[in-house]
Structure prediction request, 263 residues.
Amino acid sequence: MNLKTPEYVPGHGLITGKSVLVTAAAGAGIGFSAATRAAEEGARAIVLSDIHEGRLAAAVEKLKTESGLAEIYGRVGNVAVEDDVRGLIDFAEESLGGVDILVNNAGLGTSKLLIEMEDEEWHRVIDVTLNGTMRMTRYMMRVMKARGRGGVIVNNASVLGWRAQKEQAHYAAAKAGVMALTRCAALEAAEFDVRINAVAPSIVLHPMLRKSASEELLAELESKEAYGRAAEAWEVANVMMFLASDYSSYMTGEVVSVSSQRS
Ligand SMILES: NC(=O)c1ccc[n+]([C@@H]2O[C@H](COP(=O)([O-])OP(=O)(O)OC[C@H]3O[C@@H](n4cnc5c(N)ncnc54)[C@H](O)[C@@H]3O)[C@@H](O)[C@H]2O)c1
Prediction:
């Protein structure tokens, strides 16, 4: 079975007037889709960030052209580096007049059997995926608390935080960590009116991912989905926008699966 991809859902103004910061927003996947969706849902200003300078400049231009929104800024940064994280959030605070919504999208994966994995590969994946999300969340919480007008953080986890897959021990451990971080940080942040939730996507087959994994593995992953297909990046971005919006005002510390997997 391979159910056809649904029609693109138009925006509904879910985050009208809000300012948004998205990390890892210059790729072909969920990050850029989240920034695009934010513009379509009424955001007044957006900062896109990414580690890749060239692609980031192109992404900013593309979003400006496609959305017609004037206030779109780019800032290069590596979420695994504390100075970059502080520089990025300080920049976004200043350019946006305060960040209302942070989308922590950055995450890094590789494929390796655990018995063959060296410490360096384990640490690299954990450092971007878990520690990077922690650094962004921690500093954003500090800034939002000091500013005193609340805010929302949406983290990007993965169903692998719940499920097993060969060659993914490091990535799955990191994403399980992102889920736990989301729950605990949300409990603390509720005291100053900041909500923190996460999405857990199963699979989004954008061109960059297609290049990095074998056809057989991707076909196997798609076949596990009840829909027989991978999600479109915008289908994940839609759920992020729901979590970023006041429609989810009674949700914090939650991890929402964006998946059609049967097990
Ligand atoms: N694609 C999937 O099937 C899938 C499934 C579940 C979860 N996720 C998660 O979704 C998120 C987005 O993944 P995606 O595959 O949609 O790609 P994406 O296009 O959203 O992100 C890729 C971008 O991340 C940037 N990046 C990499 N390391 C970075 C770092 N240290 N700091 C800042 N930017 C960095 C890259 O330059 C690239 O532009 C990740 O956290 C990933 O783990 C993806």
